[in-house]
Fold each of these.
Amino acid sequence: MQIGNLKINSKVILAPMAEITDFAFRKIAKDYGAGLTYTQMVSAEGIAKGDFNTLRLLTFSKNETPVGVQLLGNDANILGAAVRELAKLNVSIIDLNCGCPVEKVVKNKMGSYLLTQPKLLGELVKSMVANSNGIPISVKIRLGFRDEINVLETAKIIEDNGASAILIHARTRSDKYNVDPALEWIAKVKEISGIKIIGNGSIFNVNDAVDMIEKTNCDGLLIARGALGNPFIFKQFNLMEKGISYQPEESEILKVVLQHIELLEQEQGFTKNFDRAKKNIIWYYKNYNGIWCLIEQLFSASTFTEIKKIVINHAEKLKSGFYPEENLEIVNKNFKNKVLFWLAKEEKGKVCYN
Ligand SMILES: Cc1cc2nc3c(=O)[nH]c(=O)nc-3n(C[C@H](O)[C@H](O)[C@H](O)COP(=O)(O)O)c2cc1C
């Protein structure tokens, strides 16, 4: 697929996720066939000022390509300056966040608030394009800010101001995750647009991906929660297009989990990485028996060596059929709504079969 001058070799893309799509996560998604991955949202102002903590959030290696960076901002000059800095770093695509629903962000007139400001939005996109030195600009949007949907108008403004792609999360800002994405709106945008339209919302498996394409005719797919603990989804989609079905073996999952932990461990000095490793481990094993036991053990672990041992031990128990069958539906439901991890506290009383 071609987005502006960027050619990517798969239409499945890893969505930006705050505190999640770090270097380790992106590397594994890419190794498993994601055509493009995005960093989490970062402050355009922080980049423009060269703020260390902001720049650190988008750590990537020189050979990481393609890589997309997502910016949060609402000032055309600042966004332009941030884009100029990113162009020096040779990033592959730069995205403007117009979807973030978080109160603090909206209060600062950023994220999904920009959906209420079409004129300003046009100016922001125009400035990003003008400063990008040819690097394509994408804009991630929702269907609207409140219940009224203005995605067609928003899409037109974005295209008219020179962006190369629109990533559409098919929900409004007021919709929670338990509302199904309104795919018909992606279809309508696709019909009127001449730039790439990337569909987003509740793609958890290959069937959801096919459904999104069939219902919307979109050019590409953006996957967020469906990729948590499941980089395999990218490979599954790519192989499915060739008529091949694929399911990772348990040994392959273990290998990836250990690789993921090691990548986080290697990134020295990032204290958050230890908790992040735990979070990712839980996501990898969320659909397997013994999840409660794993969560409990991880909570009390305090070193990377310890969590690796726990994982190896867990994988052995799974292989030997040690854990009794569990109803994993509740885990799945909570996961989709809340992205799991804090479940252990809510689900007190679950038995850990040590
Ligand atoms: C934990 C988490 C963090 C997110 N962070 C971002 C972000 O930094 N920028 C952004 O545009 N969207 C962010 N999103 C929204 C996702 O990119 C995506 O649009 C949304 O989750 C719908 O896709 P899904 O149904 O595949 O999860 C985040 C979502 C989650 C679950």
Note: Strands lie at 2-3, 6-7, 12-14, 36-43, 68-72, 93-98, 137-144, 165-172, 196-200, 220-223.
Amino acid sequence: MLRLLVAALSMTLIVTLGPGSGSTYAHAVYVRSEPPFNAVLDTAPAQVKVWLTQEPATAGARIKVMDQMGRKVDKDDTKVSFDDPKMMSVSLNNISEGSYLVEWAVVSAEDGDPSQGSFTFSVGSPNVGSNAGNASPALSIAAAALAISILSLGISIRGLRGRSA
Ligand SMILES: [Cu+2]
């Protein structure tokens, strides 16, 4: 079931990224991140970095990282890199094993268009302590990410319609 949700999420993200990757609709969309999308890490990262196709404006650039219980684990210090202006980062608290949801939102410094997205990563085995009790938070985090992706897709489609009108 989780695998199915993750597959659905991945597909949704690909669809979401689709319009942004076309040359006609140049929005600030996800290129890559550290940790990467769906990564499983041995050690906890100290930061989350997101690279976009356009430079985000400093005002409005936001990366939010939450644990499986929805608790914020970032230090609320999102900044756009001075040396690498299409990259933004946020610092993390000391996080333990588990799955984390990253949500980002920006306003493009290049054309003023807002965009947003989300992805998950895990520290340790994603199946650590896997039982009925622990499976559901992982499921709900995948479901939340999926819902956010669908929301982003809706926004992208509205954006496209706005553009072509
Ligand atoms: Cu744009």
Note: The chain has a mean pLDDT of 78.
